[in-house]
Design goal:
about 170 residues, about 20% helix, alpha/beta, eight-stranded mixed β-sheet
């Protein structure tokens, strides 16, 4: 199975490190979506554009200041084989040591786009932005998609490039 990696960017220098962290396998693709000036929609507009361009079997999201851990692509492949056709929510780790998800629940503050690996089935998706500019587009995307269940995975696949200021 192939994966489209979607990266919204505002042109940070850290994008190079993000790109070099992606273990791209044959058939995978990387979409870097930049808006200049930045759209002010927390990357949601760019993620929607990346989804529309994606041609692979699955879609994964990462921001331009975050990095995948070594071995992430093999973890993703194993997960796809274990849970075909289902979205998977991995764990992510912030520099301050905080780990998301906290509980196996799709609730605000417990979801971030970097943890999502989802089958590329557009009719199952909810838009990546709720009306108005919000930093909760990733929550709405996962909470309102039409997949009957999501698989919560214990593996950490992303190291965040910034601390989460919303939660201590």
């Amino acid at each position: 199975m192939t994966i489209s990696f979607v990266i919204p960017t505002i042109g940070r220098e850290s994008l190079r490190k993000t790109l070099s962290s992606i273990e791209k396998w044959e058939g995978d693709e990387i979409w870097v979506i930049r808006h200049s000036p930045p759209s002010g929609t927390w990357g949601n507009t760019e993620r929607k554009e990346g989804i529309a361009k994606s041609t692979c079997d699955y879609i994964a999201f990462i921001d331009d200041d975050d990095c995948y851990i070594p071995g992430h692509r093999a973890i993703m492949d194993k997960t796809i084989k274990e849970n075909p056709g289902k979205p998977n929510l991995f764990r992510i780790k912030y520099p301050n040591g905080k780990i998301l998800w906290d509980k196996k629940e799709i609730v605000p503050g417990n979801i971030s786009s970097q943890m999502i690996l989802v089958p590329n089935i557009s009719e199952m998706f909810y838009r990546f932005q709720f009306p108005g500019n919000t930093n909760m587009g990733d929550y709405y995307f996962a909470a309102r998609w039409k997949f009957p269940e999501a698989i919560f995975r214990e593996e950490i696949i992303v190291m965040m490039g910034h601390n989460d200021e919303k939660k201590p």
